[in-house]
Design goal:
mainly alpha, 26 helices, ArlJ-like, transmembrane, Type II secretion system F family protein, cell membrane
Length: about 700
């Protein structure tokens, strides 16, 4: 039965009996409710059917509150919002009255009577009351509205997370079931993998809790979670699983079929997504190339006829065009969200050792005289052993800190956006140096007189100081991730083949490291040593996933770790992981290949825009500037056209054309990268197009 069913059927599935007071008529026993729960809660508690949808959303959001408690708190927050709005409104009214703005108010109505004169005599009082009322109502109603609909946002976020990770979770459950785990143990292991599978792990935890704490059987637990999950895909999956359990089918075969089915669905969804992006690329040409050029040409021609169009062109270049590009980028990001794998990090390495500024402070604290190094956790142990542990951790902290200082760029390679913390102050310093040395003057007059050098030194060069390192580190990280994405599925196949022949997993890793090359060989060697020395397969695999930093590989490592721990058929688990990883990366590669031509569409669109504005600058504005420099301006007497070249602001138009090309270069590059991969991948295109735009205006 689908969620689309309505009325009593849906309410019975959801469990309407959870409400302690189900009353059809308002007012029934409200006095008793008020004595027990107070005014606010009693009002909502007496009307449960009216707020049934809110209770359902609260449960789906795992909010941990009943609808009456949540609404009562929302009502108190709204009352606080009314009070705060009234105080703020009175303060605004007092400031307006002190500035004399209230005294200048006049009667906007045609009616003239005693009431009007009375209000005019006390206009400050009435104006203050009106302003306070408006602010109080706005803030109070706004607080209530946000609180009432906030669970809907949480539910929507959980739904997206479940839909993204569900195919990976199904493969994970298939590997565990193939290894011999029963269904409850499978959901238990999935529930313990929240850092890998996100919200779907919380759904699995709810299934386990239904069985272990509430004493329900598996069929009832699955049905209860099915009625509460916010994801229709997960609901359909549980419906199919309930059908298998009801008919006595093989759950392992069901998981295998579902994994293949979701892979086919992913291919179909990706094809639909590519078709949508093809349409959006055509919209890009119309919205950001043809339309701006049409408006620019029309405004320039109108200025030649005497119209003042500088304000409209300024708004187009500095406001409308950037906002439209940002909106288009948000649209692309929203459409691409189902295909973006969230980051997974296990924090397995350097257990007990701090990171960041905490590590630096710990090293300084350990070095202080008279301060004993402290262990990472307060555990009951002998004083001598505790001292040794503290000394060992102090030594590890110094080692980690020395390693970080020995390779200061490692943080930027792992998190490229952190480079902005260094390059942004450097860019400001570069701009200040240009201003101090007189290379560029940060005034509008200087911009009009020398637009190209002023824009280049004050904006373009500092911007490149930020973008070039950021793009470089990002491309380096992306190439490394693609390297592992390309090589690792084959490595898993090698491991599976070696294990089928009786080779232990750590020896198979040694063989794979010798057969591999580059960073993959180094990481496989580290993983082999970690397994041999520490005898902890799960931690070793998770540490390997942290070092590689590829989300899909992190899920694969979790699958292998739990599969190896639960099954003696390690080769089967490795084979499942290899096949799933290969298919997922194949989908990603096909998507990037299909989207690559759209980059050419965006770049060509920018070049057309640049060509037109450069021609307008050289073939249109230059002759007008020469005509304005002559003692007498030619007229068109006899032609009947009132052309006025003296009214054309040539210098302003030149600067605006240049800035329009710069905005187009930045936006087009980022959008091209977002179409093919991600926004940061488009920075290299933005840098190239920005240099081309400046060179075109400087040389032509």
């Amino acid at each position: 039965m689908s969620r689309e069913s309505s009325g009593d059927t849906e309410q019975s599935e959801f469990g309407f009996q959870q409400f302690p007071y189900v009353q059809e008529a308002p007012g029934l026993d409200e006095k008793e409710l008020r004595e027990t729960y107070g005014w606010f809660r009693s009002y909502y508690k007496a009307r449960p059917r009216r707020y049934f949808d809110l209770q359902q959303r609260l449960n789906q959001a795992r909010y941990g509150q009943s609808f009456d408690v949540y609404l009562a708190r929302s009502a108190w927050y709204a009352v606080g919002g009314v009070a705060a709005g009234a105080v703020f409104g009175l303060a605004v009214a007092w400031l307006l009255a002190a500035s004399g703005a209230v005294e200048g108010l006049t009667n906007p109505l045609a009616y003239d009577g005693a009431v009007v004169y009375y209000i005019a005599d006390y206009k400050s009082l009435f104006a203050g009351a009106a302003i306070a009322t408006v602010f109080a109502a706005t803030l109070g109603l706004g607080t209530w509205y946000v609180r009432y609909h906030y669970p809907r946002l949480i539910v929507s976020s959980r739904q997206r997370n479940i839909d993204v990770t569900l195919p990976h979770a199904i493969v994970f459950m298939y590997a565990l079931s193939r290894g011999g785990m029963d269904l409850l143990e499978t959901f238990g292991v999935l529930a313990d993998s929240e850092e890998t599978y996100g919200e779907i792990a919380n759904e699995a935890e709810m299934i386990v809790r239904e069985v272990e704490f509430f004493g329900n059987d598996m069929y009832t637990a699955l049905r209860n979670v099915r009625n509460l999950t916010p994801s229709e895909n997960f609901e359909r999956f549980l419906d199919d699983l309930l059908g298998v359990l009801d008919s006595g089918g093989d759950v392992t075969v069901f998981f295998e079929d579902e994994s293949e089915s979701y892979l086919e669905d992913a291919r179909d969804e990706q094809q639909s997504f590519l078709e949508v992006l093809a349409l959006l690329s055509e919209f890009f040409v119309v919205l950001f190339v043809a339309a701006p050029l049409f408006v620019i040409v029309i405004l320039v021609v109108m200025s030649l006829l005497g119209a003042q169009t500088l304000t409209e062109l300024t708004l187009l270049v500095y406001v409308m065009l950037p906002l439209a590009m940002i909106g288009f980028l948000v649209l692309l990001d929203t459409l691409s969200e189902p295909y973006v794998q969230p980051d997974v990090h296990f924090d397995e390495e350097d257990s007990g050792v701090e990171s960041g500024f905490a590590l630096l402070w710990a090293v300084v604290r350990d070095a202080l005289p008279g301060v004993e190094p402290r262990p990472s956790a307060a555990t009951a142990m002998p004083a001598e052993l505790e001292s040794r542990q503290g000394s060992y951790l102090a030594h590890r902290r110094r080692q980690v800190l020395r390693a970080k200082f020995a390779d200061p760029l490692a943080a930027f390679r792992s998190k490229p956006v952190w480079s902005v913390l260094v390059t942004l102050p450097l860019a400001v310093l570069v701009g200040a140096v240009f201003v101090a040395t007189g290379v560029a003057t940060p005034t509008w007059d200087a911009m009009l007189e020398r637009p190209i050098p002023t824009t280049t030194w004050l904006f373009v060069v500092p911007l490149l100081v930020v973008l070039v390192p950021l793009s470089t580190f990002h491309e380096r990280k992306r190439r490394r991730e693609q390297y592992f994405a390309t090589r690792f599925p084959d490595t898993l196949s090698i491991l599976a083949s070696a294990n089928r022949m009786g080779v232990p997993i750590d020896d198979a890793l040694g063989l794979a490291s010798r057969w591999s090359s580059g960073p993959l060989s180094e990481e496989m060697t580290k993983l082999r040593n970690d397994l041999r020395w520490n005898y902890d397969t799960r931690s070793g695999l998770r540490a390997f996933a942290d070092r590689v930093g590829v989300p899909q590989l992190s899920r694969t490592m979790t699958l292998i770790a739990e599969g190896v721990r639960s099954s003696t058929d390690v080769a089967a688990v490795l084979g499942i992981a290899a096949r799933d990883t290969k298919e997922r990366f194949k989908l990603d590669r096909e998507r990037r290949q299909e989207l690559s031509p759209y980059i050419a569409v965006v770049v060509i669109g920018f070049l057309v825009f640049l060509l037109v504005v450069v021609l307008l600058d050289t073939a249109y504005l230059a002759p007008i500037a020469e005509a304005q420099a002559e003692p007498t301006t030619p007229t068109t007497a006899g032609s009947g056209l009132p052309l006025s070249m003296t009214s054309v602001p040539v210098e302003s138009y030149k600067a605006l054309f240049l800035h329009a090309a710069v905005v187009q270069a930045l936006g087009s590059g980022v959008l091209a990268g977002k179409l093919a991969d991600d926004a940061f991948s488009g920075l290299k295109y933005s840098i190239l197009l920005l240099v081309v735009a400046i060179a075109a205006f400087a040389l032509i």
